[in-house]
Task: inverse folding
């Protein structure tokens, strides 16, 4: 098992197909509404009509796929009252269902929406990096599923050497908040973090 | 860290080295954990639980296939436990040189919800009540098959075999047995059936392209690595062909490895635009030919055309290559420059108000196309699926000739991207004694008013006119009858007349809108419940053979189509000829043997082959369409009358004089822009100001995979509308609206987005029609709004040409 | 329904603060009260307040998905303010039970003062931890002193107005008037200070699904809350200007004042939760 498992997303190859979302739902039998991985559409741009009836525009859009970054400084672990949210011995942030009381405080605190409340269980659930598969030498489901090979995983230190630290790109939150173990290649259209040029435009899908 | 925005070559990630020792170490740890204190115990329990879910010894893996018609047809690995599907995983046979994983997209990954959908057709059903009411009574298989056999016999005896029709359907496309062939095979033993030509996908381009090139054909996507510029007209493969083994992946790779700039021409900023476009050129639906003509104007007037190419390989560009008996002023150059019959120069200033794209932008675009050597011009199936869509298709093709890009690496014919595969044999169907063909799109008229259909007015082929209409209609792997065909309200009326079409059989897995119109409804199997042998589709550069055993027992009383047809064959006295003594399993084996004849490297032992399951071949280099013609046009003429590329088609010139077309429809020898009913210039826009298209959406494949909860949660049905149009109507993102025109209305929620042009709305096609008590559809089924109007040449479907209005519901 | 959003947290936090407020204000009154009947009246509020406190805690379980695991919630006092809050809930509850038990008796007990003092101290610490729970770096509208101002405001206002109902009927009612009014006004000022801070500012980097409604909606409801709460405090002030003995109609004024103020505070609390919006994805 990797010492510091970390995700890598190549936003410049992400087509927004949501295969990662659905494959995760299938593998984990997630009920509707519980989304361990979420693909957000970030869209912006305006239209301008000229006097001759033709249009100019500066529309852009890109997709960002996010599950849980198993952060170095995880807010969820810090604030969980029961210690149900913890970093396990495989260095994965995960929920102990024997302790979780379903207060959703972790959900309020995570700027990535990683903790997802499962109403059927009455407890929090989240991406567990498919560590059960990793222990068997297999690849996490979303990584194996992505048709564009845009999601990969590996040792955080090695990924950082190749791709640098986690970046503050819209719509991601500032990585200084939780120190996510996430490396990335930004989209060609990527806007800087906090940018007002676009907005998260598919709330009903995440 | 600086955002470079440049595509970097992604090195292959080092996969963690899972030595067996590692694994054993953790297995021992698992056992030891149980002894720890309470905190450790809960952790240990979690791990054990996880291990069980991840795949233990009692799970069985079976290869299967996603069989729907996106063209990609991805392999799937189904995991079952205790006879139940528990998980779906993708092709994991590895990426590398000459090797590509054909990873299924979100649709194939939903196959568990498809299989166990609560709306599965469970038992054979007989209609009680009126057709379309959806009132059924459960009957036995015997009664169902007896009824069908009796009716089929009676209809053939009374009306002849031309009265028998299999409805167009592509819901299963990759299987070799349970696809469409099993019915064709049966009916050919009983005298045949009236067949169809054309498809809802590509009718106009398939009919029109042979008049230009003699055949269809295009370079494959991997060839884009050799291009300097790639221009996509109405093409969205990143979403419509999202397979990880096919066009989407090839497009990304070509972009990464090549030097091309990518321009997307589309009323929508599609996912393809989002991912690869260096520039988005939004134009109004149906105006591709206007844009192409204006581009041609710039190319001609700025001396950017490849004159030697046009002289050597083409007919009709200018007077020097026109056919002899055509009066002067009818060449393509005449049309573009305004020296032709309409006296109108097709300048960028002329095209700008039509397309909505500024004239200076058209000039820039044209110069870029003219100067990029080579330029890969490609169209999807969007531009052609319009009123007079044949014109758009040919107009785009012509750009490839004007710039001399046909038949070379990095260029293209302008047709939809090509593919590569191996045509492994399917279940043989025998010969159809009936030669009469109708357009796939005219079945409703062939039911309601067959005697009015002739070769000249409705595209009847191999016969002057129809004598008898469709009396027996077999629907399998199809939701065309009600849902995918145009003008649902009008089509319903035709079907409701039980004296017109006397027998409708629907073989289905789920209660689709078409199933609601069955007289006899038969439950059929999904891929997991089926055994078959599959091969690649038409949207990748990989050939594969996939042996798929049955993963689970058929649900309820579902049966495979082959078994159904076998039992019908028995009742109709052709059992021996139908089965040739083979069960379905025997056929799989037989077809495997036939495949081995084509590819002797396949294992001799069928059982060994089944264990391996998936076999792949890759061509190793891109395909260049019409290369032989380009290399030597004399030795390798095209299948056109002149043997050359016919920008001016004499055949179309002649047909335009004899074919009987309704007012406003035209056949043109040249790829001209024509205005049509419900186009941007139609005065009807005063009442219905918005142009409506129905883009193909990641939430479904046509109407397959509709309403599956996981898919709906990530890709719900929404009407796309620009913020300007939404604001003018007091609408906000997520509001429920009524979309309507004179043909019908539907209720649907909206996605307010700048990713679609003002004045244009798009309702993703394929949502299942569910009318309320007032007859208004409630699911956003686009065909409640489309018009059944045969396109002039192909007699095909103009389903993207519609005018509507949208109001808050 | 916006007003029912997070109803269990609204009721839990508000009622807990009412309970603590009752005891805190009550202790101040007891300091000055000499009349036995008055003292008995004030003392009797402690078990009632404790009952309110228990109800508040039970309602808080309505916010959890798996209440049976509740005993785990004090395991992370080391780093979680929520765990610390629950820890304080327990400590406060224990001394509150003790106090309630003693004050149900007619006779004043020797240890009552200690117990009451502990309830006040722990109670105030409880409200402090409650306030800290909401200082989330990811929720800009809460990442200020808004929760402190609002929660302590509620505590003072409802504590004072409740005790006003209790002592208004007694002969010494006027004597306590000033004290009660001062505490009520302190609470009102805190509440008023919290109101503008409680209006969310939606920024571009917020997760859209967490933005529940327009800021104008929250602002208007907070204004309404100030009106209701202010009215309550105002009516209390009025009852001190007019002689309560001679005014038969005014007998119910303190009760009306409390109900108005409680309604206002509950409205304000529900807007506090409604205004939550989180940055990020």
Result:
């Amino acid at each position: 098992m990797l010492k510091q498992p970390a995700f890598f997303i190549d936003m410049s190859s992400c087509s927004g197909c949501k295969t990662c979302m659905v494959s995760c739902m299938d593998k984990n039998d997630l009920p509707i509404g519980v989304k361990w991985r979420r693909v957000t559409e970030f869209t912006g741009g305006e239209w301008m009509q000229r006097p001759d009836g033709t249009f100019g525009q500066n529309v852009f859009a890109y997709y960002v796929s996010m599950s849980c970054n198993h952060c170095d400084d995880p807010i969820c672990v810090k604030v969980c009252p029961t210690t149900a949210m913890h970093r396990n011995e495989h260095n994965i942030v995960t929920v102990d269902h024997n302790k979780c009381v379903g207060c959703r405080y972790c959900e309020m605190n995570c700027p990535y929406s990683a903790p997802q409340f499962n109403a059927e269980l009455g407890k929090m659930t989240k991406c567990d990096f498919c560590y059960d598969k990793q222990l068997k030498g297999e690849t996490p489901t979303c990584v194996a599923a992505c048709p564009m090979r845009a999601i990969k995983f590996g040792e955080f230190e090695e990924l950082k050497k190749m791709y640098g630290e986690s970046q503050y790109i819209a719509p991601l939150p500032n990585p200084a908040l939780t120190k996510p173990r996430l490396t990335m290649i930004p989209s060609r259209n990527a806007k800087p973090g906090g940018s007002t040029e676009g907005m998260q435009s598919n709330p009903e899908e995440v | 860290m600086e955002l470079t925005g440049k595509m970097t070559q992604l090195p292959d990630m080092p996969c963690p080295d899972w030595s067996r020792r590692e694994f054993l170490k953790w297995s021992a740890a698992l056992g030891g954990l149980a002894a720890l204190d309470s905190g450790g115990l809960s952790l240990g329990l979690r791990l054990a639980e996880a291990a069980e879910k991840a795949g233990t010894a009692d799970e069985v893996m079976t290869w299967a296939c996603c069989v729907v018609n996106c063209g990609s047809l991805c392999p799937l690995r189904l995991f079952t436990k205790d006879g139940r599907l528990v998980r779906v995983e993708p092709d994991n046979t590895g990426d590398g040189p000459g090797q590509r994983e054909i990873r299924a997209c979100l649709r194939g990954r939903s196959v568990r919800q498809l299989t166990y959908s609560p709306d599965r057709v469970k038992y054979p059903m007989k209609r009680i009540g009126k057709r379309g009411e959806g009132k059924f009574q459960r009957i036995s298989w015997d009664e169902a098959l007896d009824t069908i056999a009796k009716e089929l016999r009676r209809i053939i005896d009374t009306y002849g075999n031309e009265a028998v029709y299999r409805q167009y359907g592509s819901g299963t496309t990759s299987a070799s047995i349970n696809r469409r062939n099993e019915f064709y095979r049966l009916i050919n033993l009983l005298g045949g059936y009236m067949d169809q030509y054309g498809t809802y996908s590509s009718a106009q381009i398939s009919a029109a392209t042979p008049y230009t090139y003699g055949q269809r054909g295009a370079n494959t996507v991997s060839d884009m690595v050799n291009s300097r510029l790639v221009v996509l007209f109405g093409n969205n493969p990143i979403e419509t062909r999202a397979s990880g083994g096919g066009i989407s992946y090839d497009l990304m790779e070509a972009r990464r490895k090549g030097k091309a700039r990518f321009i997307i021409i589309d009323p929508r900023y599609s996912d393809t635009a989002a991912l690869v476009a260096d520039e988005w050129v939004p134009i109004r639906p149906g105006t591709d030919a206007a844009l192409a003509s204006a581009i041609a104007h710039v190319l001609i007037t700025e001396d950017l055309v490849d004159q030697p190419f046009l002289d050597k390989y083409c007919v009709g560009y200018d007077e020097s290559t026109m056919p002899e008996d055509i009066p002067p002023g009818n060449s393509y150059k005449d049309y573009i420059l305004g020296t032709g019959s309409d006296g109108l120069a097709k300048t960028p200033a002329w095209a700008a108000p039509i397309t909505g794209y500024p004239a200076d932008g058209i000039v820039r675009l044209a110069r870029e196309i003219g100067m990029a050597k080579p330029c890969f011009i490609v169209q999807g199936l969007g531009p052609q699926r319009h009123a007079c869509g044949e014109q758009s298709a040919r107009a785009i093709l012509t750009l490839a000739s004007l710039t001399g890009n046909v038949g070379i690496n990095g260029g293209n014919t302008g047709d939809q991207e090509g593919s590569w595969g191996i045509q492994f044999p399917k279940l043989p169907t025998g010969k159809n004694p009936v030669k009469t063909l109708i357009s796939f799109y005219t079945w409703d008229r062939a039911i309601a008013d067959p005697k009015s259909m002739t070769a000249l007015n409705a595209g009847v082929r191999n016969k002057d006119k129809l004598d008898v209409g469709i009396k027996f209609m077999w629907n399998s792997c199809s939701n065309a009858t009600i849902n995918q065909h145009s003008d649902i309200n009008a089509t319903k009326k035709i079907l409701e007349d039980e004296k017109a079409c006397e027998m409708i059989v629907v073989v289905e897995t789920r209660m689709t809108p078409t199933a609601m119109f069955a007289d006899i409804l038969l439950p059929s199997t999904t891929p997991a419940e089926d055994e078959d042998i599959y091969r690649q589709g038409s949207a990748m550069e990989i050939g594969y053979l996939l042996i798929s055993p049955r993963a689970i027992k058929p649900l309820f009383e579902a049966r495979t189509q082959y078994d159904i047809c076998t039992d019908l064959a028995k009742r109709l006295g052709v059992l021996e000829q139908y089965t040739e003594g083979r069960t379905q399993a025997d056929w799989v084996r037989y077809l495997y043997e036939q495949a081995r004849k084509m590819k002797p490297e396949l294992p001799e032992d069928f059982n060994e082959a089944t264990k391996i399951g998936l076999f792949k071949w890759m061509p190793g280099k891109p395909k260049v369409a019409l290369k032989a013609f380009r290399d030597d046009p004399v030795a390798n003429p095209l299948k056109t009358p002149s043997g050359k590329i016919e920008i001016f088609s004499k055949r179309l010139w002649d047909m335009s004089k004899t074919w009987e077309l309704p007012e406003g429809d035209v056949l043109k020898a040249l790829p001209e822009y024509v205005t049509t009913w419900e186009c941007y210039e139609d005065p009807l826009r005063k009442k219905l100001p918005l142009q409506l298209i129905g883009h193909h959406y990641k939430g479904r494949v046509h109407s397959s995979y509709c309403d599956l909860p996981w898919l709906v949660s990530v890709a719900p049905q929404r009407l796309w509308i620009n913020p300007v149009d939404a604001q003018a109507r007091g609408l906000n993102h997520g509001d429920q609206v009524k979309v309507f025109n004179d043909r019908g209305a539907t209720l649907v929620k909206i996605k307010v987005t700048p990713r679609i042009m003002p004045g244009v709305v798009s309702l993703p096609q394929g949502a299942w029609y569910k009318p309320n008590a007032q007859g208004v559809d409630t699911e956003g089924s686009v065909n409640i709004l489309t018009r059944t109007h045969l396109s002039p040449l192909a007699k095909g479907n103009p389903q993207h040409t519609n005018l509507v209005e949208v109001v808050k519901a | 329904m916006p007003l029912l959003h997070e109803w269990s947290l609204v009721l839990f936090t508000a009622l807990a603060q009412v309970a603590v407020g009752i005891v805190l204000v009550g202790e101040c009154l007891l300091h000055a009260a000499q009349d036995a009947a008055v003292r008995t009246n004030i003392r009797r509020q402690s078990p009632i307040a404790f009952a309110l406190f228990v109800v508040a805690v039970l309602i808080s379980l309505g916010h959890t998905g798996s209440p049976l695991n509740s005993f785990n919630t004090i395991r992370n006092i080391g780093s979680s303010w929520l765990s610390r809050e629950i820890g304080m809930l327990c400590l406060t509850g224990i001394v509150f039970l003790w106090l309630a038990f003693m004050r149900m008796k007619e006779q004043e007990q020797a240890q009552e003062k200690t117990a009451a003092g502990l309830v006040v101290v722990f109670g105030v610490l409880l409200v402090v931890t409650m306030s800290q729970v909401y200082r989330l770096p990811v929720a800009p509208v809460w990442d200020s002193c808004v929760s402190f101002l609002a929660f302590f405001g509620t505590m003072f206002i409802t504590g004072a107005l409740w005790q006003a109902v209790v002592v208004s009927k007694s002969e010494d009612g006027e004597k306590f008037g000033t004290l009660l009014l001062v505490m009520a006004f302190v609470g009102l000022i805190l509440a008023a200070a919290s109101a503008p801070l409680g209006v969310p500012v939606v920024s571009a980097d917020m997760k859209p699904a967490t933005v529940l409604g327009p800021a104008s909606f929250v602002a208007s409801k907070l204004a309404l809350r100030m009106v209701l709460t202010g009215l309550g405090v105002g009516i209390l002030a009025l009852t001190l200007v007019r002689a309560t003995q001679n005014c038969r109609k005014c007998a119910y004024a303190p009760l009306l004042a409390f109900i108005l103020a409680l309604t206002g505070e509950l409205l304000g609390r529900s807007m506090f939760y409604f205004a939550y919006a989180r940055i990020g994805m």
